[in-house]
Design a protein that fits this description.
Keywords: Signal, Sugar transport, Transport. It comes from Streptomyces aidingensis. This is Multiple sugar transport system substrate-binding protein/raffinose/stachyose/melibiose transport system substrate-binding protein. InterPro entries: Bact_solute-bd_prot1, SBP. By secondary structure, this protein is an alpha+beta fold. The chain folds into 2 domains: 212 residues, Periplasmic binding protein-like II (D-Maltodextrin-Binding Protein, domain 2, 3-Layer(aba) Sandwich); 210 residues, 3-Layer(aba) Sandwich (D-Maltodextrin-Binding Protein, domain 2). Helices cover 40% and strands 15% of the residues. The chain contains 18 helices and 15 strands. It has a 6-stranded mixed beta sheet with strand order 4-3-5-13-8-14. A 3-stranded antiparallel beta sheet has the order 10-9-11, sandwiched between helices. Strands 1-2 form a two-stranded antiparallel sheet. Helix 2 links the parallel strand 3 and strand 4. It starts with a helix and ends with a helix.
């Protein structure tokens, strides 16, 4: 837990009071131009127009934050209407490239930046807006996951996404069930965590409520992997550093551990047929001591399990090691062919500069808003699980333990590789060695295509 001094709200830094302005900037040529490699000058307007505007938002069904932000923006700006389309995230990933390339693309898409989207000229380069709005005040680590260079290197180059909220992943636990097995504090090591799994099993409780119908167990697998494999190796693989590999003994060991948990009955037997929504609903109803998930679910669990839910970062193999957890910006992108890019960018900037919007990020998203670190943090209820996830985020950030998601390593890694391979692994139909080898083989094939 954070000390009282760390809980103090940060002083407000310089305000971003931008005068209505239109600046001419150097930007990459839009799709369809005669020379895609040649820059052209275009106007970036930071003033929201007075006439009626419709912003088309394409987002995911399991996360309502962006929808709630859109509603609040409409309330503050009555001339703006949001047209919102929602789909399950794995379906969104499949459909987004086609929609962004169409003649009627969305203006905003909930999407993590991928190199193929940049290569195919589907995303708008946001550097001109970053210059106009002063996003250079953001910590570089907030923007790095959203950058892609001209050579296709992720983590550097131009900015193609905007991170509104910052995730942190860990383990939720049911306090009442924890008391039944004598769990008085979070485990300090993976060994202690596994002792709790067995204690729950011996007490007739389900140790872990797990979904995996669409590859949701990727968070459980990577939580284990993060503690066994050095952080740089994982990051190099996610960011496509030449020569990076995940077909190593530590990846095999992580897969074996997850498979053994399934074999020992630590996961619900129907995990491979349970979807995200059902997992969360069953956990909230009291089924399962633990659930691997991120802070985006904290606000809802505070409401559904008031006072009976806690959160901790997944522990290391050895006590005392710094916390390592998946923690990335939840990003929105503007398609290159968007009809209203200026209005979309205005909305993005509003999400992290407007006090009500920042509070919404905490209240609905259960997460820490990004942006200028000089701005005050939103208020959260003392003792809530949202407070615990925010403290966990600060612990990870201060210890430089944030790491990306394996699912974002290549465009097809989540749907085409991790999801089906995790089904096979948990179902006992592939070996840990085959699992790690398949991840690497598909990764190399994706990068070569």
């Amino acid at each position: 837990m954070l000390s009282p001094s760390r809980r103090r709200r940060r002083a407000v830094g310089l305000s971003l009071a931008m005068a209505a302005m239109s600046v001419v900037v150097l930007a990459g040529c839009a799709p369809g131009g005669s020379d895609p490699g040649a820059p052209q000058r275009r106007s970036v307007n930071t003033r929201l127009a007075d006439e009626p505007i419709t912003i088309k938002l394409y987002t995911e069904t399991n996360y309502t934050l962006y929808e709630e932000l859109a509603h609040e923006f409409q309330r503050q700006h009555p001339n703006v209407t949001f047209e919102i389309t929602k789909e399950r995230y794995d379906v969104l990933l499949q459909n987004a490239p086609r929609l962004m390339a169409s003649d009627n693309p969305p203006d905003l898409v909930r999407l993590d930046v991928q190199t193929d989207q940049v290569k195919d000229n589907l995303l708008l380069d946001l550097d001109p807006y970053a210059d106009a709005y002063g996003w250079d005040r953001f910590p570089p680590t907030q923007l790095a996951p959203l950058r892609v260079s001209e050579s296709g290197q992720r983590g550097e180059g131009s900015l193609y996404g905007y991170g509104i909220n910052h995730s942190v992943t860990g383990v939720y636990f049911n306090k009442e069930l924890a008391r039944q097995i004598g769990m008085n504090e979070p485990p300090a090591t993976m060994g202690e965590f596994e002792e709790l799994l067995q204690a729950a099993r011996d007490a007739g409780l389900l140790p872990i409520m797990q979904a995996n119908a669409a590859g949701e167990a990727n968070m459980t697998y990577q939580a284990i992997l993060n503690q066994l494999l050095d952080r740089q190796t994982v990051e190099d693989w996610i960011y496509n550093v030449p020569g990076a590999t995940i077909d190593v003994p530590e990846s095999v060991a992580a897969a074996r551990r997850l498979q053994e948990w399934a074999e020992k009955g630590y996961l619900n037997s129907d995990a491979n047929s349970v979807d995200y929504t059902s997992m969360v609903g069953r956990f909230a109803a009291g089924e399962g001591l633990f659930m691997f998930l991120g802070n985006w679910q904290a606000a809802a669990l505070d409401s559904e399990m008031e006072g009976n839910v806690g959160f901790f970062l997944f522990p290391p193999e050895d006590a005392g090691r710094p916390a390592i957890a998946m923690s990335t910006p939840g990003s929105l992108v503007i398609p290159a062919k968007a009809e209203n890019p200026d209005a979309a960018a205005y909305f993005l900037n509003w999400t992290l500069t407007n006090s009500t919007a920042r509070q919404t990020v905490a209240d609905v998203g259960g997460s820490v808003p990004g942006g200028d670190p000089g701005r005050p943090l939103p208020d959260v209820a003392p003792g809530s699980v949202t407070e615990q996830t925010q403290e966990a985020f600060q612990d990870v950030a201060e210890g430089d333990g944030a790491i990306g998601f394996l699912t974002n390593a290549t465009p097809g890694m989540f749907q085409n590789t991790l999801a089906p391979q995790l089904q096979l692994l948990i179902g006992g139909r592939t070996s840990p060695e085959e699992f790690a080898a398949k991840l690497q083989a598909d990764y190399e094939e994706d990068l070569a295509s």
